[in-house]
Design goal:
Number of strands of chain B: 0
Largest sheet of chain A: 10 strands, mixed
Oligomer: heterodimer
Distance between the termini of chain B: 84 Å
Helix content of chain B: over 70%
CATH superfamily of one domain in chain B: Leucine-rich Repeat Variant
Number of strands of chain A: 13
Radius of gyration of chain B: 33 Å
Number of domains of chain A: 1
CATH class of one domain in chain B: Mainly Alpha
Radius of gyration of chain A: 23 Å
Structural class of chain A: alpha/beta
Strand content of chain B: under 5%
Helix content of chain A: 40-55%
Shape of chain A: globular
Structural class of chain B: mainly alpha
Shape of chain B: extended
Order of helices and strands of chain B: HHHHHHHHHHHHHHHHHHHHHH
Largest sheet of chain B: none
Number of helices of chain A: 16
Strand order of the largest sheet of chain A: 3-4-5-2-1-6-11-8-12-7
CATH architecture of one domain in chain B: Alpha Horseshoe
Distance between the termini of chain A: 72 Å
Chain lengths: 471, 367
């Protein structure tokens, strides 16, 4: 057998397979974009309805507990917590968990909020690391602080869930900046459908925005390229990615930065899983799995309204760690719940959404990386036509730009959060540049995430933060 | 150029090449479209025309004049109101109905109650859209009672939780038998989101719910419904419920018995005190905890020895509630609590210390 011919044949067919994969993936993205538009219209009408807003603000809204794990948040905890305590919501409790911080987080909390120790009376419905003490505040009756041994974010959330007694709980990061009316918006799906078990909202990037008392008061895109490109990325992911998937049968991801859950549903699912880096996605997938297996009608909803702001990594090093961790978490979750893949028992989740996450979200960086390698080899040996390759690249680039531009169109049509025209022009320029270099880097980081998962790494990696710009 | 032309010709002969060229053309077209849309939306934002609110503002000014004592302003307000669309009128009514009471409220209701508005509400109540039904619930006061009651009963069975929640808020305004029956009917349904609102509605309806409440307590229906009924009994302070609560404490299922113990704390009498004392020896931990809690509320120092005896229990909750009850019982309780801080059992010492050092206002949080 002529091995050279065989190798060329394999390469030729592989390049075609990559071509078909490209058509499939981009076709799917286009479908998501189209599906997201009616969802946006529906949500837009609801969020603009002043009467409805007034009704949501009434005493009839169910009580919510904010669950905020804090680990070494000494510098920001007072401001973040003050913002949480002033969220517009009729019946709100806040449970902060000091997850064995090594810094002065607990001392700062004690002083700033006049905490006093309470007997740790709560039902240990979920196992957690040892709770050292429970505190309440002289100043804010809605505040409870749990001081416990370090056990990770999932463990801290479980401890907070044990303490919370309200029908709805909101899991969030202590450093997330929340919109004042975020909960009034997020509670909407729960009050519209009885069987709603979880709801997520859009998270935006706050780098270079002006922040006052942990609230974003002036929106502007980041000056640096790296966080700015993530603004476009987030717009694309939230405004049509998750919204389109919602239309297909429900989301598998509710961001750990801000998500509202039915407490009972989380307890029934066994709480957040310790020992995984993607605990937010894992919980939602597990909820889907359990509820489908029990044949209980349920809904995991997503609202496109911007509800919270977070700080994006500003250096390649930190960003690479974050993306690598996200993909490791995705791999872990998909592997744990692989039984759901193309399984009709799980309905549209098993037949459409889960396969989408495997074939498009998880596999895409692998195929793309191999595609680049195959293309380079094919071009070198003359198997692939140069002209065809250039046109293919131009078409792929153009599709990427179209999707990014349309996410900016959706932002402009429905939310208009960027007040200045030059901000939008800047984002358009970023959308044009995003696919030249940045995208390829993210592919590398995501593949690295898969490799690290296969090696069995479970660390979070350090996240260096610059902090927000104060007014 | 020649290279491009030759390659393009070759490419056009292959289906994949044609496809790529088509995608490229579409990319270009959609890029231009996206940019055009962005410009369009930006222009719209820059020249956004503010909604004219002239008649609304005038109406509000007229009402302020009326509130200051000039009754003639009401007729002018009525005239201005007739110029507004039903949607704006509904919105205005909602904003006023939340903030005013007494004579002014009656006048406002009469001002907004027009035949046109009534037709609008009836139409909204039949809508398939939950948001329209929701508005109909909030505007029910503008409909004559004989029409509002059957509508409200329907809303209390609405499939959308939000509509049911607001119907429950509206229920005490119409304390008719059908409405009370419908609210009690909700106890058999899912209570996760609406339970607190059902309780609130029943409490606000007051004495009109007592007969049904007694029947429910006697019938011993499902546990969540029973617990909710016990909480309502506690809040409406109906003495007729006391014997039933005592029976429930002695013979009911553990969770309901615990709720009954807790509720009996709101009815201080020698009989309830003795029943609760006896409950301190119950085999069920929640019952003992709640009995201790209730004895703390009854404020009778005679129960101090019983609480001290029950204190060194293996259950944390029992110890905690005994300590809290002792703290509430004034000087004899405080002395007993101080003694408990020297107890041989370190768990008893710990909890006695915790509770002894808690600020007084925090005692109200113990549930």
């Amino acid at each position: 057998m002529n091995w050279k011919l065989f190798a060329f044949s394999v390469l030729y067919h592989f390049d075609w397979a990559v071509f078909y994969y490209f058509i499939f993936v981009n076709g799917f993205y286009t479908m998501l974009l189209i599906l997201s538009i009616p969802e946006l219209f529906r949500n837009y009408a609801l969020s603009r309805d002043e009467n409805l807003k007034r009704l949501f603000e009434s005493d009839a809204s169910p009580a919510i507990t904010l669950l905020a794990p804090a680990y070494n948040e000494e510098a920001t905890i007072v401001e973040s917590l003050s913002a949480m305590l002033t969220i517009e919501y009729p019946d709100l409790q806040v449970v902060v968990v000091n997850d064995g911080s090594g810094d002065r987080t607990m001392d700062v909390l004690k002083t700033a909020f006049s905490l006093f120790e309470m007997p740790p009376v709560f039902r240990r419905l979920l196992p957690t690391a040892e709770v050292r003490a429970l505190y309440r505040s002289h100043r804010f009756s809605a505040l409870t602080v749990v001081d416990k041994e370090n056990g990770g974010k999932a463990d801290a959330l479980n401890a907070a869930l044990n303490v919370a007694g309200t029908p709805l709980v909101c899991a969030m990061d202590a450093d997330t900046l929340i919109e004042p009316d975020a909960l009034l918006r997020m509670v909407r799906p729960f009050l519209m459908k009885e069987n709603t078990v979880a709801a997520g909202g859009t998270i935006r990037i706050a780098n270079d925005c002006v922040v006052d008392k942990a609230r974003v008061v002036k929106v502007r895109p980041p000056r640096r390229f790296l966080p700015a490109v993530q603004v476009v990325e987030y717009l694309r992911a939230f405004l049509f990615g998750r919204l389109g998937i919602n239309r297909l049968g429900g989301n598998l991801v509710i961001s750990g930065a801000f998500g509202l859950f039915s407490r009972k549903a989380v307890l029934d699912a066994g709480g957040w899983l310790r020992g995984t880096v993607g605990e937010d996605m894992e919980l939602v997938v597990r909820m889907h799995r359990i509820l489908c297996e029990k044949r209980t009608p349920y809904l995991v909803d997503f609202i496109p309204d911007p509800v919270a702001w977070t700080e994006a990594p500003e250096t390649l090093k930190v960003l690479s760690r974050q993306r690598e961790r996200w993909h490791r978490g995705l791999t872990d979750t998909l592997a744990r719940h692989r039984i759901m893949f193309c399984n009709p028992r799980y309905g549209p989740i098993g037949m459409i959404v889960f396969p989408y996450f495997v074939i498009v979200e998880w596999l895409a960086p692998v195929v793309e990386l191999l595609g680049y390698a195959g293309l380079a080899i094919g071009l070198y040996f003359g198997i692939v036509d140069w002209f065809f390759a250039a046109l293919f690249f131009a078409a792929a680039y153009g599709l990427g730009v179209v999707l990014s531009l349309f996410s900016i169109v959706l932002e402009e049509a429905f939310y208009q959060r960027f007040p200045r025209t030059r901000h939008i022009l800047y984002l358009v320029a970023i959308a044009l540049l995003e696919n030249l270099g940045y995208r390829q880097l993210t592919v590398l980081w995501r593949v690295k995430g898969i490799v690290r998962y296969l090696r069995g790494e479970t660390s979070w990696g350090r996240m260096d933060r610059r902090g927000f710009k104060s007014s | 150029m020649e290279f491009v032309a030759t390659n393009a010709q070759l490419l056009l002969q292959k289906p994949a090449g044609l496809f790529i060229l088509a995608v490229l053309a579409l990319d270009l077209m959609f890029c231009v479209l996206a940019v055009a849309l962005i410009i369009l939306f930006r222009i719209k934002l820059l020249f956004r025309i503010r909604e004219r609110q002239g008649p609304v503002k005038e109406f509000q000014e007229r009402l302020e004049v009326f509130a200051a004592g000039d009754d003639s302003a009401l007729d002018e307000a009525r005239e201005l109101l007739s110029r507004l669309s039903p949607g704006v009128r509904a919105s205005l009514f909602l904003s006023y109905s939340r903030s005013i009471s007494g004579r002014m409220r009656e006048q406002i209701v009469s001002l907004f109650s027009t035949p046109r508005q009534e037709v609008q509400i009836l139409r909204m109540s039949r809508s398939r859209l939950w948001s329209r039904r929701l508005h109909a619930v909030r505007l029910l006061e503008l409909v004559p009672v004989e029409k509002a009651v059957p509508l409200l009963v329907g809303f209390l069975r609405d499939p959308t939780p939000l509509v049911r929640l607001h119907a429950l808020q509206m229920a005490p305004v119409f304390p008719h038998d059908e409405v009370v029956a419908a609210v009690f009917g909700m106890l058999e349904g899912p209570l996760a989101l609406t339970g607190f609102a059902v309780k609130d509605a029943l409490v606000r309806m007051g004495p009109s719910v007592c007969d049904r409440l007694h029947k429910l307590l006697d019938a011993r229906s499902s546990e969540p419904a029973l617990i909710l009924a016990i909480e309502v009994a506690e809040s409406v302070r109906n003495p007729g419920c006391v014997p039933r609560l005592m029976d429930m404490l002695r013979e009911g299922p553990p969770e309901a018995a615990a709720a009954a113990a807790r509720a009996l704390g709101g009815f201080p009498s020698p009989e309830t005190r003795d029943t609760l004392r006896a409950a301190l020896t119950s085999p069920h931990e929640p019952v003992r905890s709640m009995a201790a809690h209730a004895l703390g509320r009854i404020m009778d120092p005679a129960v101090v020895p019983d609480l001290v005896t029950a204190f060194p229990a293996p259950s944390f909750n029992v110890r905690y509630h005994c300590a809290a009850a002792l703290k509430k019982l004034g000087e004899p309780g405080a002395k007993a609590l101080a003694q408990c801080q020297k107890h041989e059992d370190p768990f008893v010492r710990d909890i006695a210390w915790y509770v002894g050092n808690m600020p007084d206002f925090a005692m109200t949080w113990i549930r």
